[in-house]
Amino acid sequence: MKTISKVLKKDHLKSLLRKLAKDRQLVAPVRNSYGDTLFTEIEALDGVEIDLDNQAQSSLKSFLFPQQQVLFEYSTDQGSAPVYKAIDSDGPTVFFGLRSCDLAAILYMDVIFLKEVKDPYYRQKRENNILISIGCNEPFSNCFCRQTKSGPFMEYGFDLQLTDLGDRFFVETGRAQGEEIIQQWAHFFSPASKEDEKAQYQMRLEAQGNFKRQVLVDLAIRKLKDDLVPEEVWSKLSSRCQDCGGCAYICPTCTCFTINDRKISTDSGERIRTWDACTFAGFTTMAGGHNPVDMKQNRMKRRFMHKLYYDVKSHNRTSCVGCGRCVDMCFGGVDIIKFINMVGQGEI
Amino acid sequence: MDSLPFVDVMASSTSHVGKSDMKSFEYTFQAEITNVYPLTATEKLYQIQLIDPAERQRFTFKPGQFVMLELPGIGEAPFSISSSPIRHGDLELCIRGVGNMTNFLAKVPRGTKVGISGPFGTSFPVGKMYAQDIMLIAGGLGLVPLRAPIAAVLENRSRYGNIDIVYGARNPAELLFTYQYDMWRQFDIDLSIIVDQGDDAWDGPVGLITSILAQRIAAARDMKKNTYAIVCGPPVMFKFVCDMLMKAELPMQKIFVSLERRMHCGRGKCCRCNIGSTYTCLEGPVFDYWTVMNLKEAI
How many domains is chain A built from? Predict the structure, then answer.
C-alpha cells in the first residue's frame, strides 16, 4: 500500500482525538497525579494531560490480554453445559501514543495468539483497534529497540505513525484505517511539503544515533544459538533474582498465563485466566512434584532463551522489543541489558 | 531499520469471531464418570463416557494422545488416555490422587458430570510397527499412557511380531492393572515385571528395570532391524533405558517416548510445557528419541 504523508499541527491533535473518541474508546499515555505516565482509558479529554515526553511505564498488554480475564461462566447443575460468555467484540478502541516497541509487542502478541489456533478472547479485544503510534526522536534511557529491530520508527503495523517535528507532527499511514481517518477528518491535516519530508527523514536518521546504551543483541543471539554461554552467567544473574515476577508482568510480550476455576456460588463459577511468570518455581512443577526446570538458574535461562533465541527460531524475531521496562522494574538488577552484554562481550 | 519479519495476522483473517469460534476453542464434551475402580492405594481407574451417543461415536483418538478432564469448579488438567482407541468416547483414565483436582476426583461418586476436551498431542505410530517386534518399557505410572498402545496392538495381535512388556514398579502394591496380566499373556505377550522392593508374597525378580531389560534385549531377535521400542516412566528412567536400547543398536528413530510436562491450555499458548521452542502439548507428548536428544533438557 502506498503511504500517504500529511502534516498535523500540534494544536489540532486534541481536536482530532476528540473526534476519534466520539464513538470509540480512547487509550493514551496519561500523566496521573502521582507523576506516573501510564496508558489509561480516557473518559473526557479535558483536564487530562497526554504525556508524549516520557515513556509510559505500562505497556498495552493489559488492554489486549487483561491480567485477569473471565473466559466463561458455568453452572454445575446436573448435565448443564457451561454458559459461554457472549464474545461480542469490544467496542472500537483508539490506542494513541504508543511507541514503536509497544507496536512491535502487539504484532508479536498477534502471532502468539492468532497464528494457527486462534484465541478468541484476545481477538475480540484486538479487532476494531486503531493504532496511532509515535516514533521516538530521542530514545529513553534504557531503550535498545534499534538492536531488536523494533524501532525507533516502524515501517508497518500502525494505522498512523506520527513524527514529532517541533510544532507539528508528520503523519504517515500504514493501513487502510489510517487512510480513512485522514480522509474523514481531512480538515485537520495539511499536505506534507518537501521540507517536511526532509525534516522527518533527518529526524529518523538522528534518532538512530541517539541511543544511550549499547546493547549487543545480535551477538548475544548468535552466542545463545551456538550455546556458548557459560553456566556462570546464569548462576551469577540468578543469585540476585528475588522471584517477584515483575519482569514478566511488565514485559509487553510476556504472554504466559495460568487457568483457574473460581467458584461464585455453590453451583456456579467461572474460569479465569491470569498472567503467570516463568520465573516462578510452581510454573512448571508437575503433579508428582518433579520440576523439569528445577533451579532458579534454569528458570532464568528459560526466560532469557525464550526472549532471545527460541522466538528467533520459531517466529524469526526476538520477543524482546527493547523497551527497557524490565530494566527499571528489577530491583535485583537482573536486567536483560546486563545479560545481553555479558553474553555479547563474553565477560562473566 | 532492517526488516523485522511481519505477519499481518489481523489482515489475513478477515472473518468475524462468532460465538461458534469460541465454542470450538473451548469445546468441551459433556461426559459422565460411569465407573471407578481402585487399582492401588492412590491410583484409580475412571471410566468416563461422553454423554451424547453421537459424539461418543465420533470421538476418535490415537494411542498416546491425551485429553483435558474438567471438573467444574475445581479445574482442568491433562491426562493420557489409557483405553483402546476402538472404544471411541468410552474412555478410561488412570489417575493418581496427588493434587487438588485429583484428590477431589478420588472422592466423587459415580455419575458425576465432567467435561472432556481433546484429544490433544501426538501418538505412538502403532500402524508403522506392523510385522515388527515391539518392546514396551514402563516404569511406575508410565504404564498408564502405554496401556492404549498395548490395547491397540492386542486388537491386531497377528500383525505384529514378538511383543515384550517390561514393567518396573517400586513395590508389588504399586503395580497397576494387575488383573490384566493373565489376559496379556494369553495374547502371547512376554510380560516381565520387576519391583524395587519385594514383599512376602512377591516371588518375581527384584531390582532395577534395566536388569530385566538386559535379559529381554539378549533374548530379542536382531534389534536393529526388527524392533520398535516405546518407553514411558519417571525422568531418571528414560536415560538409562534409552541408552541401553541404543547400545543394543536400536535406531533412535525407532524408540518412542512419552514425556510429561505441566500443561494449562493444551493449545500452545500458555508457554508452560515447552522444551526450548518445542511445545509438548502440540508437538508431543510422544517424541521419537532422535527428537528428544536434540531437545536440550528434555529428559
Answer: 2
CB contact under 8 A, A114 and B26: no
Mean pLDDT of chain A: 87
Would you say residue A16 lies in a domain?
Answer: yes
Task: Give percent of chain A with pLDDT exceeding 90.
Answer: 34
Say if residues A303 and A279 touch (Cβ distance below 8 Å).
yes
Domains and CATH numbers, chain B: 27-120 (2.40.30.10), 126-294 (3.40.50.80)
Residue B262 and residue A286: Cβ atoms within 8 Å? yes
Pairwise CB contact (< 8 Å): B277 & A314: yes
Nearest by CB to residue A285, choosing from B76, B262, B269, is B262
Asked whether B50 and B89 are in contact (CB, 8 A), the reply is yes
Which chain B residue has its CA at the smallest distance from A100's CA?
B1
Residue A44 inside a domain? The answer is yes
Residue A110: closest C-alpha in chain B: B9
- When pLDDT is cut at 50, 70 and 90, the band that residue B26 belongs to is low
Q: How many angstroms separate the Cα of B42 from the Cα of each of A148, A235, A335, B76, B104? A: 51, 38, 45, 20, 12
Residues A200 and A232 in one domain: no
The mean pLDDT value for B84-109 works out to 90
Contacts with B7 from chain A: Cβ below 8 Å: 107, 110-111, 115
Size of interface A-B (CB pairs under 8 A): 158
Q: Are B60 and B74 in contact (CB under 8 A)?
A: no
Tell whether A290 lies on the interface with B, counting CB pairs under 8 A.
yes
Q: What is the mean pLDDT of residues A318-323?
A: 91
| Rounded mean pLDDT, A46-66 | 89
Whether A105 and A225 share a structural domain: no
Does the beta carbon of A69 lie under 8 angstroms from any beta carbon of chain B? no
Asked if residue A70 is part of any domain, the answer here is: no
Domain that holds residue A22: 5-63+89-208
Is the domain of A225 the same as that of A159?
no
Model-level pTM? 0.88
**A294 φ/ψ angles, rounded to the nearest 5 degrees:** -85, -30
A171 to A7, A193, B48, B95: CA distances (angstroms): 6, 12, 60, 60
In a domain, A130, yes or no: yes
Q: A80-116 pLDDT, tens per residue?
A: 555 666 556 678 899 999 999 999 999 999 988 888 7
Tell me what pLDDT residue B36 has: 92
